[in-house]
Amino acid sequence: MKTAFFNPQKFPELTRYIDSGDEEWRHYPLQQIFPTDVSKALQEHLGEDHEIQNIIHSTKINAEHFLKALRENGLEDRIKDCVHFVVDQESFDYLNDQGFAVLLPPASRIIDLMEFMLRLKRTGLTLCPGGDPKEEEIPDFLHELGIDFIRIQVSETQPADSEMLRIYHTGLKETPPTTILTHSETLPAQLNALFPEMPDTQIKWLPVNEDVRQKLVSRGFEPLDSVWK
User: Fold this and answer.
1) The model's pTM
2) CA dihedral (142, 147, 148, 154) positive or negative
3) Mean pLDDT calculated for residue range 93-102
4) Are 66 and 165 members of one domain?
């Protein structure tokens, strides 16, 4: 059976991919994203006289958690004059639908976003509502460019709990995967550690893009052609 293990909140485009075809996919997410309590941080940094001019959103899910927290704390009006920067179309569409001023750079890469901000001279205080620090690149870029910013962690990534892993173990044992949608070159090693009993000699690795495919090749795998070139 074709099987996927990606985080659906982090990779919504992959959810659309496995849902759009005629073939059946089994989806066992190894991670999920949950909101954190940011009430104190929002009250501290978004006071009536706050100096934040820009807000950079790394993902749509983090933007959703951020706006929900603002509304729960009655602070949404405090960001009405801020410019929101995003690096993907989904975040742009979401924030635009919410009525905010949103800018998406010509190329959807973080480095292009930073250059875009500098060209627009949007160098005032910047707020970054993001996820786990180890998964966020934007604060590092802002630091390198000397842009003043405040980071608020609005979400955290948690691994599948023991009960979910037990369910996954049972499913993989009863119906071993034939093809695995590979969203990261480290996924084979991760699966081997979590499910050592799963036979991997007959598995076909389907990389999501050419970058992942090349990295799998460098690790000794013979993956299929990537989903997206």
Assistant:
1) 0.80
2) negative
3) 95
4) no
